[in-house]
Amino acid sequence: MKKISHMIPSALQGFFAKTAPQAPELAPLEMPMLRRRAPRDALLRIACPDPTAEEMQRDRHQYRAQWLVRQERWEEMADLLHDADLNHEMTPGAMPVAELMAFGARADVILAAEHALYDGKPASDAPLMAGIEALEHVLADHVGNQVIAVIVAQAHMDIGWAWRGTGWDSDVPARNHAAFAAHFERAEQILAPFDKDTASSPLLAATHCALLGGTGGDARAVADRYARLIDLNPENPRPMRAMGNHLLPRWHGSYDQLELEARRTAARTQETWGAGGYTWVQFDAISCDARACANLDVPFFIEGLRDILARRPDAHTANLLAAYCANTIGQAAPSEDAAGAVRAEIADCARWIVRDHMTELHPMLWAHAARGFDNNLRVRSASRFAASGRDEAMRIITSLFQREIDAGKRVIFTEGRRQIALPG
Fold it and tell me: Is the overall model pTM greater than 0.85, yes or no?
């Protein structure tokens, strides 16, 4: 029985951080080289801003769209979203602004549905259809508006996943599976009039790729659909990650197809990412499939990690890759097989990523990495979730600097004026 993966291209990762005032600007970080005979008060200082600059930007775009639709200013919101999509606007962490706004526009409906379906069995009096019916009325009032069609279609898919969950087919009640299928069928109907418009809209192309989660497709068709999306905006790594996941045998592909498309993507995006295209395609696939991990071209993958950081040397990317190597891969159950050896090599990369590239600690990314970047993860308390990520990062980074700590040095994470001194 196939297990449905959690990688849904239209879903967002880590964007549900609490609203917070802008953190004070931190002074440039100084990371002195740690030498054998260094003074006992030598420090590694890593800023821990809350929220991060990336989180603040994402929240701003999301809440702007959410506020506009709450004021019934749908056309204004759609125009702003269309411009962001057309201009390929992204945050510094490479998140498309159009996707953030699209989520903000449907957030109230989605979060209400997820709350009602939290245990998989909504209460008999839960107004489960009220939100999506309201969106359907908005769609009827704006016939031909591609942006609003995309938002309503995405809302149907999100609610479908809330009904279904991410477990095994055999564990999903018939009622839930039927609701999942019905919502995806409706999403496909909504998008049908715009099938020929994907060449100019990354958001629309991404939404068509998201349909693969419910409608299926053969490996060649899946790869072609994602290739068109990737070519629209090669600087966005999320479609590459989603394609790799969807090319696993549990979905629509095979291990040979995964390897082939990873190499093809690396060749097509070489100017943007170097070898990083191979790494992005394999990124999520190898974290949830042992055989895909065992088949990995490890030197090529690690070369891709280095190329990504050379081309995107920001704190968000450094945290993403460090958390992935150290936590998503490094904390997997140990094994003596080929996959275990591959994981060990990738986990070792966390050491040089942290030492050479990390200037800030982004707890949300570490929290999501600890849970396998599950896009359907339901976070009840953003502050506690972030705190768990910070604690996990501190534990792992401390282990990376254990030799220096044993020599009497200290590792300190700073957050404004607050300092968190680790043992040593």
Answer: no
